[in-house]
Design a protein that fits this description.
homodimer; 157 residues; mainly alpha; elongated; DNA-binding
DNA sequence: CTTCAAGTTGAAGTGAACTTGAGTTCAAGG
DNA sequence: CCTTGAACTCAAGTTCACTTCAACTTGAAG
């Protein structure tokens, strides 16, 4: 906890690749913590870089801030994730990715089946009608889970 | 063009599965067209149902409104897509889906490689660091294209 | 002491794809 | 004519993950 081990905003930003505004946002959201200098400037512990790496990885997998917070809260304190922690987490993320891949493949297969048929029927074409909006509501597996329904562009700095 | 062939809002909404507000939005955006009754209410041609099915399919594939508009504009008039139209379009969408699938698989493989390593290193872990933010900027294929960076929740009615 | 890059805050803005609300009018049945 | 439900318009709100802005203050170097 030597003061020389505390890094200022600019350094954390440069080394993590996150914009300063994003880092402030994560602090406000409780994903990371910061000490303060005499004058009120943020001073970060080195471990924050690791947390930010975790945040970036999680957000690449598609987790929301809320979900990332939950994962982080299961790592008590600021402890470095143990092997067991990381295995639990990566199993979790892996399942999530598998679902997303499977969903896209179902959609892809539907597309293959449709090529050339030109139907796009509101009643029967599973491709244009993945929720089974019309009949019975019998509902099989939907082609796409909500988590893949639409991408949202986030400009990185 | 018999008047009995023109459908009112509620019917189009029910049969397409889109909320009335969404249908008005699509009209405002120029994706569909509507006639008007004497009193100013919308009256839709039957072909609009087909267009809406197309819109739903496209949006399941992840196209933006803008992109959907472009695809629709390449179908002159309100013509029903020909076999050739649909083949061109589905090749296009298929490529897009393939890219998305491949991207998720790259990410998934990265995760597999990381399981148990616990590294999440800012310098070298490709999983938490897919943009190669730090070094060289040599940049290989990024793990995730922007189109999969983050899902954005849209409540369907 | 001066200078100025780097840091601070809180509020407001962004973009996509809609939804909601308020207030009004239409159309069909009785 | 009256009622009722469906439809209308236009503006504003929603969500998420940030960014941008305006208006200062800090802190390290010279």
């Amino acid at each position: 906890m030597d003061a020389r081990d505390l890094l200022p905003m600019g350094e954390i930003s440069r080394r993590s690749g996150f914009a300063a505004s994003a880092i402030r946002y994560y602090e406000a959201e409780g994903l990371i913590e910061a000490h303060r200098s005499g004058g009120g400037q943020r001073r970060f512990e080195r471990s924050v870089l690791r947390r930010l790496a975790f945040i970036r990885a999680a957000s690449n997998v598609g987790l929301t801030i809320e979900e990332i917070r939950e994962e982080l809260e299961r790592l008590p304190g600021n402890r470095t994730p143990t092997k067991a922690d990381w295995q639990r987490i990566s199993r979790h993320w892996g399942r999530r990715l598998d679902e997303q891949i499977a969903a896209l493949q179902r959609l892809r297969n539907g597309l293959d089946g449709c090529i050339g048929c030109g139907c796009l029927s509101l009643r029967s074409c599973a491709f244009s009608n993945p929720d089974d909006v019309h009949g019975e509501r019998g509902s099989g597996a939907r082609l796409l889970p909500d988590s893949l329904r639409r991408p949202h562009p986030t400009r990185r700095p």
